[in-house]
Amino acid sequence: MRVVVPLGHKQMVGIVYAEHTQPWNDTIALRDILLVLDTQPIVTLDQLHLWQWISDYYMCPIGDVMSAALPAKAQDRQYSLDARTRARVRSHKYTGVLEPAHALDAQQQFACNQITQTWSDHPVILLHGVTSSGKTEVYIHCITEQLAQGNNVLYLVPEIALTTQLTTRLERVFGNQLLVYHSRVSDGQRMEIYRQQLLGSTPHVVLGARSAVFLPVRQLGLVIVDEEHEPSYKQQDPAPRYHARSLAIWLANQQGAHTLLGTATPSLESWYNVQTGKYGYVAMTQRYQGIQLPQITMVDLTRQYHRKEMYGHFADPLVDRIREVLADGKQVILFQNRRGYAPYMQCVQCAQVCKCPDCDVSMTLHQRMRQLVCHCCGHTQTITTVCPHCGKEMKPHGFGTERIEDEIMTLFPGARVSRMDLDTTRKKDDYQHIIDAFSRHEVDILIGTQMVTKGLHFEQVSLVAVLHADSILNQPSIRSYERAFQMLEQVAGRAGRSGAQGQVIIQTFDPSHFLFQYVQTHDYEGFAAHELNERKAYCFPPYYRQITLILKHPNETRVQAAAQMLQQRLACSFGQRVSGVILPSIARAQRYFVRQISLRIELHANTVKAKKIITNHIDWTLAQPSCKSVIIYSDVDPM
Length: 639
Ligand code: ADP
Ligand code: ZN
Fold this sequence. Notes:
The structure is a single chain. The protein has 18 helices and 27 strands. By secondary structure, it is of the alpha/beta class. The strands form seven sheets. The chain has a seven-stranded parallel β-sheet, sandwiched between helices. It has a six-stranded parallel β-sheet with strand order 11-23-22-14-21-20, sandwiched between helices. Helix 1 packs across helix 2 (62-69) and helix 14 (480-492) packs parallel to helix 15 (514-520). Zinc ion (ZN) binds next to loops.
């Protein structure tokens, strides 16, 4: 239950975690509880166990876990479980007609049977189904079975996938048994869903983004993690820096429930767990109705530029193909994973680049807003066309979605064009409007960042183009190839989802890159084998556990010194498992200089002990006068 306790001059709301009759060490002073807010528990014992596990595993205070786990309303002392504020839980209460689930096709039926069989000895199953194989139908089938047995189901999707496309589909089948829980649902509604689950009622399927794992779902029969490879399942900031897939599996295990991880492009972690026999495996290799996977064509930009066969950032073959598709009355998706007009402004004479005053990041040109914007901290400034150093001209370099939009409108003045990126989806319903308009074919060409790759289904898209694949490949991360493969395969998966085979055109300066061979043949297994070999050779995950320590301070000398001190102590305990002090790719962010230290720990090692040693070294470092006010935290299983 929640209680109010005095802390310093403040009164704080907390949860009773355990009972003590006397102080357990002499630095502790006991305070009286001023007020008990609840008449019945607001948190279950299972939840407290999960919180404790998160706190231990992800090396963060349990209070941080509580802040993330409890809905905002529950942290407000005015809220009462009993006198409920009549929040309209389902402002969109479903009154339409319920439809039976679609009949499964042979492949889906086979997959469902396999899933049921495999669950008997593998509580976690990876459902590896190519794009548009109809994974949603398989989920619906599994959910129906659970609800019939009176069990609850938790269905996790990446935040962005929570559009009406999926919600509408599920609502038609499950009606008011469907609860939707994500950041765009109001605080009142979130609290009401929490309350319903806590007090227990008829079986529900809770569809939610990663934070839904914190709901007190009782009698859990099944947890589905759709698009399990999605990096957005990992919370970056603030703590707890948890991975919702790991929490989901833990939660299911705790309650004896089953887990289904679904994707067309498994994370290497999950793939590895299948290889080692830890997870069960069920595959669907065909698209629904036997449609062919899209045909992928590479366009060599070096050659195109050399021959001057380019229009702006579009190679001639791509322009021709777009023209044909439009003439055919079909739709096009153009993918460029950068928003804004151009990623940087550079002086034509001295090559100076315009940078954010607070971050080690170049300012992105946003033509529509007539501003330069830092994508790290949001700082904006007016567009400078004169170099502050030499007085010569500053010109935009590279290209983002805005520039593509301008170029396509010049190339195809008659086409109806829409753009989907963070800038065009700031308001609550923007994202929905863009998708609806494109679904209704009121738009011919949709330009977008990776938002357009996420599980969307459009009937009329016959061409998808990736404008600059090199920018996806060359990311400073050990996962950059894995991400690139996933992104390309997912974006390609939007093409030709009904009717004829779709086409994908990938523009790149490096068409012979090994990754494209695998993408072209949709060869996930080949790619995964190749990449796992590399990971093994370099002692990277999933062969080793990774923990990254991050240090921050506004003074560079201080943070560097602290990092060196900490690194030396860690090296004494962990030897070769510790990296040197790393300068991250963004070495200064929001006025803080950043340093990192990375640890790789054997899978079979005692991580509890390792984490304890790490925590001790961090505490020791923080206690040094020269390290005063340095911020140090850990990121376990960083992405
Ligand atoms: P995935 O999630 O595997 O990419 P979806 O579940 O979105 O694929 O299915 C792709 C399309 O095929 C959807 O429009 C879906 O309604 C349709 N579909 C799949 N299976 C069936 C089925 N058994 N009956 C009717 N339509 C289906
Ligand atoms: Zn900045």
